[in-house]
Amino acid sequence: MDVLVLLVQANNAVVSKNDIMRAVWPDTVVEDSNVYVQVSAIETDRPATVGRIMFFDLPERD
């Protein structure tokens, strides 16, 4: 699954970094920075009329 697809399917819901990593790279060990690089690329390519992707440090859900 692609990061953009995952975020669109979330429909404005909070998606944790770990949720992204599990969905996009299920069988691969990746560093946290991979998520930030992918989201940064989405932000760079998005039209100006599209909303922004927000990062927040939230406690992990159980």
UniProtKB/TrEMBL annotation:
Per UniProt, which keywords does this protein have? DNA-binding
- Listed GO biological process terms: phosphorelay signal transduction system; regulation of DNA-templated transcription
Q: Name one GO molecular function term.
A: DNA binding
Residue ranges of the OmpR/PhoB-type domain?
Answer: 1-41
Q: What is this protein called?
A: OmpR/PhoB-type domain-containing protein
- A Pfam family for this UniProt protein? Trans_reg_C
Query: What does UniProt list as this organism's lineage?
Result: Bacteria, Pseudomonadati, Pseudomonadota, Betaproteobacteria, Burkholderiales
Matches recorded under InterPro entries: OmpR/PhoB-type_DNA-bd (IPR001867), Sig_transdc_resp-reg_C-effctor (IPR016032), WH-like_DNA-bd_sf (IPR036388)
